[in-house]
Design a protein that fits this description.
The complex is a heterodimer of chains A (106) and B (180).
Chain A: H1 10-30, H2 34-58, H3 63-92
Helix pairs in contact in A: 1-2, 2-3
Chain B: H1 2-22, H2 26-46, H3 50-75, H4 92-115, H5 135-147, H6 149-170, H7 174-179
Classes of the chains: A mainly alpha (106), B mainly alpha (180).
Chain lengths: 106, 180
């Protein structure tokens, strides 16, 4: 079997990370529900994590994996604060989309 | 075998990510995100980052997605929204997709071309083996509590600030309660 000889290299992981990042970015730009936009930001963070881990193995350096650990902690804190903001907005007006939240627009 | 695992996990990641972007119901989007996160965890295992794979499943799929679902249910926004509404005119979506594809092209080119010039080599990664099952965890612990111990302490401050801030944000004020 020829396919068994093909081993996924680091470049494959990096390209997959780039694709995931692009999908997340399109999601942030296209969707109007703040919750979904938030999930897309999580997708982008995961793409970066995947890149970190792939390169940590490639360069045999543990610091890449340490960076992913810190990204996870910051992502958790970010989700807590972001969802708190969304809850306090949604309590005031139901069904608010990102376009309706233009109170600070000049 | 390695190829098979990579293709399956990559499909999970991409299908889940497209599900998040394209599904109109927020609950379906959150469950699609679980698929993506599990795919990432599988890729972590295949790159021999075992500790991070476990943390990914526990923190992301366990805590963060449950928090998302909790907020969706709490706010009662689990209805499908109309995806056809285009607030900024017809140009927004094609522009966003073109921009996304452009970013993908730039990143891919940068990645493929820059990798040839990477000559850096670290001090080596210990992977889990039968003789030393927790080598990976020990090495990460040495890195976090050795070189990066200040950053680690700062993340604890960050978490406390986040928790206090969220409690202040989401608390119902007295004036709200009387008016509601």
């Amino acid at each position: 079997m020829i396919a068994a000889a093909v081993v996924p290299t680091t470049t494959w992981y990096l390209v997959l990370g780039a694709g995931l990042f692009a999908i997340g970015m399109i999601g942030v730009l296209v969707r109007r529900n703040p919750l979904i936009m938030f999930m897309c930001i999580e997708l982008m963070l995961n793409a970066v994590n995947l890149t970190f881990v792939a390169l940590a193995t490639e360069l045999t350096d543990i610091n890449g994996q340490t960076a992913v650990f810190f990204v996870l902690v910051v992502a958790a804190a970010e989700v807590v604060v972001g969802l708190g903001i969304i809850v306090s907005i949604m309590r005031r007006r139901q069904q608010a989309t990102a376009d309706d939240l233009a109170a600070l627009k000049g | 075998m390695e190829l098979f695992v990579f293709v399956c996990a990559a499909l999970m990641v991409l299908v889940g990510a497209l599900g998040v972007v394209l599904r109109s119901n927020p609950v379906h989007a959150a469950l699609s995100m679980v698929l993506t996160l599990f795919g990432i965890a599988v890729l972590f295992v295949s790159r021999e980052a075992n500790f991070l794979a476990a943390v990914q499943v526990i923190v992301y799929a366990g805590a963060i997605v449950v928090l998302f679902l909790f907020v969706i249910m709490l706010l009662g926004v689990d209805r499908a929204e109309d995806l056809r509404a285009e607030p900024l005119g017809r140009i927004q979506r094609p522009l966003a997709i073109a921009l996304g594809l452009g970013v993908f092209a730039v990143l891919t080119t940068a990645v493929v071309r820059a990798r040839e010039s990477l000559r850096f080599k670290g001090e080596g990664i210990q992977t889990a083996s039968l003789e030393d099952p927790d080598g990976n965890i020990r090495q990460i612990a040495r890195s976090i509590f050795g070189n990066y111990v200040v950053a680690f302490e700062l993340t604890s401050v960050l978490l406390i600030v986040a928790v206090v801030g969220t409690v202040v944000l989401a608390r119902r004020r007295k004036s709200d309660r009387t008016s509601a």
